[in-house]
Amino acid sequence: AGARRAPPAAVGFIPGNLLGWMRGGRGGGAQKAAAAGEPEEAVAGGVIAPTGNRFYAQTGPVWTGPTGTSFLPEETIQRAEKGSPVEKAKLAKDPSTIYNDVYEYARAVRSGEMDWKDIEKADFNVRAKWLGLIHRDKRTPGRFMMRLRLPNGVTNADSMRFYADSVEPYGDDIGVLDITTRQNIQLRGVAIEDADRIIDGLHARGQTSFQSALDNVRNMVGSPLAGIDEHEMVDTRPFCVALNDLISLNKETGMRGNPEWSNLPRKFNIAVSGSRDDFAHTHINDIGLQPCAHAETGEMGFNVVLGGYMSSKRVAESVDMDLWVPADVDCVVALATAILRDFRDNSDRKNRQKARLMWLVESHGEVAEVDGHARCHPSYKEMIVAQLAAMEGGYDKVVADQQPRPAGPAPRAGTPVSNYVGAHAQPQEGLSRVGVHVPVGRLSVADARGVADLADRYSGGEIRLTVEQNFILPNVRDEDVDALLAEPLLNGGSRMSVAPGRIQANLVSCTGAQFCGFALIETKNNAVEVAAKLEERVELDRDVRIHWTGCPNSCGQAQAGDIGLMGGPAKKMNAEGKMKAVPGVKVFLGGTIGEAGKLQLEAEPDAIALDDLVPSLTELLINNFGAKLKPEFEAEHREAKEALQL
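Above: the chain's sequence. Below: its structure in token form.
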């Protein structure tokens, strides 16, 4: 409990209203966001977020508000009462209670009054996920991975140093940061006794970890080149910020933690694309917004796609909704509200494998192919548009049927990484953007501080994260580009680079067995080692995207890679001549991304033992991707081919 705090009367917390949005500005630090006429208590909670908008959040255990369950219809509550163990845990004690309880737990553990093992198991393993705290009980008992919310992947130097400071006490082995496939940061090794201080530190810097895990809407993905792209159709930042506030901001109190969306049946992903490249990968998100001009009026907007997701039981590409919405922030927020409300109230509460949006969409009728693309049944679209009509704002009057996709070749070719790693001119005269490759997204404390120093020195503090687990420094003065490219952090023996190899540059990896209890193999270390050996052995005239995932949940998005590697058992003959199960990977060939992205849903027939992966992938690169084997490795590869019967 705590004192109820009113939002600024002059502005209001209207979803989609970008408070103090600063277009074209460089990301700043935790500046106070005081404006004339705002109540003093609201000013105390207002800072400028890395995205440039005004950000409100509480400090300390003062969260107040209704329960998430109170927003559910009675029929939904009755289904939840008969639902999965997670549903019953949410009903038994509302997850919003953890917003305050974490402060008491942290204090009690710090003082020695209790041990982390004394905390209620459902709080520690379930409700803590509403804080972004995911207990890694199988690999690092008592320690959490802490997932943030960084809309559009925008952060800054001050925040990067804070992330490093937060994990440094846990040592080099577990105190690390990961850039994720949702343009986000995950802190590793976090102890419960430090969680309250990290939460308050994040809020002071215009960001939060609230509602970032389990049954919540995850980080809002947008274009990493938003506002600095000569081929941009829509600046995705305002949309990602507004959607982030829709989910995580209680508009009644100005506090982070929005109970209206805190009792969803499952996770939910939203991506907003800003160009034809579709750097946001809308085809694997529950809601994907693909930029497209209206054929008659020329107004810029989005075609909406629905239901894309990956899981251990099913992988689904998104389907067309047959709906176009104008590129208006409030209209997009209204659409997301309508879809989320239906999802919250009507999705499965018993079988968690069927509680994703695609299953609900399909319950309205058969998905049919139209113009070469899968399209949802018209009744689903009609239901959502009817919800828009019931809202104030007249949003149902400005949406339209899906518009024809852009015709002709896209202005850019190549992989996303090839279009942003290294130095590239911005449309703003005299400025460039410089993309930096981070092997599989892993940053040590020293790495993170080094990135912060570069951002302060060259990009006004702003740092952009990408879904390929890299980062971009925007708005670098042209006269400073050579100095940046020559920085020691990006050269020599450093892990990071602005000129990585064609395989190394495009690596994507999930967390792997080092920290994740679901992973069947270690991914990040294997990915880096195998890629280095492949680069050593072959020459390529094109980039090859290799995605590693440790288990069928496919957090590493194996089905989207040119080559996807999914952890699983393989068979290999032992010294006694018997076939034995060994750690290996299933191989997915031919996934694509971009505006014509297509997932590869079928794995190759035979799994490959990890020990045999280098020669097997070498042969695959030669046969499928035009690689040329270097002469000095011909004899070695010939012997391996014979031994493995490749």
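The first strand starts at residue 46 and ends at 48.
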